[in-house]
Amino acid sequence: MTWGLPNTLTVEEDGGISSLMGSAPMTLTRDAALGDGAILAAARDALQASFAADERKHFMDPFAPAAERNAEVVGVLRDAVSQHRQRGGLLARVPTDDETLLALFAATIGWGPAQRYLDDPRVNEIKIIGTRMRVQEAGKPFVTVPERFNSVDEVMSRAMLLAQVLGVKLDANLPQSTLPVAHGTRMHVTIPPRVPKDNTLVCIRRGRRECWDIDDVLKRGTVDRALADLLRLLSRARCSFLIVGRTGSGKTGMLEALANSWPGEPHIVTIEDHTAEIGIRRTDLWTREHVNTEHDPLVFGRVAKEAMRQTPDLLLPGETRGNEAGAILAMVLSDHPVMTTLHARSCLEAAQRFASFAAMPGAYMYEGRRDDALRDTCLGFDVVIKMDVWEDLGIRLITEVALLDGSEYRRGSVLEPRVIPLAAVEVQPDGHITWRLMARAGVGGMLEWVEGQDQTPQKLREKLVRARAMAQIRTAATSLDLVAEAISRASRHLQANEAARALATLRGAWVQRRDGRLIASAQQALAHLPGGFTEERAAATARRADLDRLLQGQRWRAARQHYDLLIGDLVFAAVAVPTGGWSTIETQITAGLALEAEADEARIEAELALGQHQARVAVDILSRFTVTELSVAVALPLICVREAAMEQLMALGEGSEAALSSVRAQRMALERALMTEQQDDVERRAA
């Protein structure tokens, strides 16, 4: 790929005031634009006006997924700049590159210097301490980043404004609060007088964009294959789980993974306190309930009791933190499968701690009756999973799994849980992580104990036997291949000249399984409807052209969105199917996104190194990437960091002027290419 465009960053408008004046206004630098209060106010007004409608308000959310929001933000601000250049206005001199426009969003209705980290999918948590920021990638230690807020007042005003919008009390009388922001993100704020003003603390834990299942935690090294199979077996038996560990250990992620691996098509009820962290894939079979125990400490227990009347197949009461445990325990004993999380240091302590919560003042049924609560905890819950995060290795993992088999009196009159170890993590001498299993998922759907006699608790044995019988029933009932049956029925419809019914049948099967055979059958059905689906055919053709353009320009993120739109509907997929099938496009996009993710990660590492005056390290980190193999939007920030590193080396008497000149030429070519790309996008939207 080459970029041979005019060597200027100034955008000249056709017509309007600029043409009457004979030249475009001089473009400001990015820093100058961001430092101008009047420009920031005008940008804020443009964004708020454009996103005022209810159906567009989500684009103002700084915690929303960045890809779609950023595209809209850039489009709005670029149009506003164009209008100001034509009629005169404060934004006329603002650069129109993506980074500047997104920086304007961050500085106005976003979260300032924290916004880039909120938009980075690898970042798990951000802490703002005073004006400094510490950032944690998933499973890794916190690092202090070079960016910082201009003042503590800026941090406090953003937090208190957000609290006001969300209807959460945050002031001197209540100086600590959790803000239930959207998209599974959780924000906890501490302000004066709880802390000195300079120590104002904002903790933002990012929610996941995708709902996990057991395969996802397997890929991340949280479990190995044998342990994953064991968890699937226990899920198929509809066990009740306690998932425990310290803060940030991955408890909610494991709860979500088990829920999304539950057998059949379960109706799942989730109850969350002031947050929205749990993600369920089958949203059509998901009842999501929220409570606020800060306003009403007993509401969680009441809602949990009401959930039993909803006859859920699986109940997820989120995190257990207090007397709501009594109501949760009542649900477990009613034979509803339940999964919840709590803070505990071991599987043994988990049962004891849960029972203590269930016996707290105000608890349903068990107030002041800890032994009764412990006895029923050990009878109701089947499995305890202990999670941990090993920061040095950058992974969250299961460290212990145990079965509960009732309770017994020990040491005289002390009632204690009977805990049967099932799995434990081990680190081999070479550092390799493995899990020692005391029992495995057996071929017959039962636990197969590795050594000694069978220790399966009777209540779990009964659940495993029932699950095995249900699996045989499901296998018998679903032996016909869904796709083959749909194709057969569609063929009969075509023979009866009912092409529309044939296509409807195939589309229904496509929702369940995207099988290439359905595309071929859909093409046959469409051939019998030469005048039908005219708009869909035209839209599919246009989107395919857009996809080809994005693939050619290596714009993988936008290509992924267009690809998902095309294959989301069988008619689109059948009309626009490429040579070699959609799998070839999927492979191409996946590889491109992987390369860009590596490049983005390397750029961030290089920026951190550069901030620590390690220019040579920054250059070495970026040396493995060739900018022509990346999209312009990814390549430009990377080359800018490389240029800054080489300038730092030159200042130290190292490096080569010729090499620096070459990098500068690449950067300017990329800027020209980006400007052309952006202008093309504007023209395409206008058309």
Provide structural commentary.
With 687 residues, the chain is of the alpha+beta class. Helices cover 48% and strands 15% of the residues. The protein has 25 helices and 17 strands. The strands form four sheets. Strands 3-2-1-6-5-4 form a six-stranded antiparallel β-sheet, with helices on one face. It has a six-stranded mixed β-sheet with strand order 11-7-12-13-14-15. Helix 12 crosses helix 14 and helix 20 (556-567) runs antiparallel to helix 22 (582-611). It is globular. Mean pLDDT is 84; it is low at 1-24 and 476-480.
List the helices and strands and how they pair.
Elements: H1 16-21, H2 30-34, H3 37-50, H4 66-87, H5 98-108, H6 115-118, E1 123-129, E2 132-137, E3 142-148, H7 152-166, E4 176-179, E5 186-190, E6 201-205, H8 214-219, H9 225-236, E7 241-244, H10 251-259, E8 268-273, E9 286-291, H11 299-307, E10 314-316, H12 325-333, E11 339-342, H13 347-358, H14 370-380, E12 383-390, E13 395-410, E14 414-427, E15 433-437, E16 439-441, E17 447-449, H15 458-477, H16 482-495, H17 499-512, H18 516-527, H19 534-552, H20 556-567, H21 570-575, H22 582-611, H23 615-622, H24 632-651, H25 657-686
Helix pairs in contact: 3-4, 3-5, 4-5, 11-12, 12-13, 12-14, 13-14, 16-17, 16-18, 17-18, 19-20, 20-22, 22-23, 22-24, 23-24, 24-25
